[in-house]
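We now fix the convention by which a protein and its fold are recorded. Here is one such record, which you should read through line by line:

>
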Amino acid sequence: MKYLFKILVLFFTLACSPEDSITPSPIEMELSTAIKKWSDSKINSYSYTLTVSCYCIDTEPNDIKVVNNKIKKVNGKSVTEDDLKNIYWNVKSFDEIFEIIAEKLNDNPFFYTIKFDQSLGYPIDIYFDMDEMIADEEIGYYVTNFKIE
């Protein structure tokens, strides 16, 4: 969770340019509010199912268990950092999904939808189509079955 503040600062820094106004956009405010809710909840051990939707291999839903803010199990199997990088490329923690959202928004997507849990702020429905003229680069992240452990 200590990285959430850094993500938020990075997001607002990258989003601003000299011609931009100081007022954040509605989606920036929504993201900021969601990050604050999630951070304020102080939940560091939880489980959820993450489905990634894209034109890529291995996009089956994954059951993820996070302990002390680190992904420890995927589909009931203990995983290492190397496993997460090499085998489970599509498994993301909530902090990583917040970071992806900020990065994608800074890249000025053609279309996107972003929904957060109203009470705790974690991301539940994220979809980006970065370029209208490019097929198959769309990506979505869908969170279900969230449980505090």
Q: What stands out?
A: The domain at 2-148 is CATH 2.50.20 (outer membrane lipoprotein receptor (LolB), chain A). The chain has four helices and seven strands. The first helix runs from residue 2 to 15. The beta strands are 46-54, 62-67, 70-74, 77-78, 111-116, 123-129, 139-148.
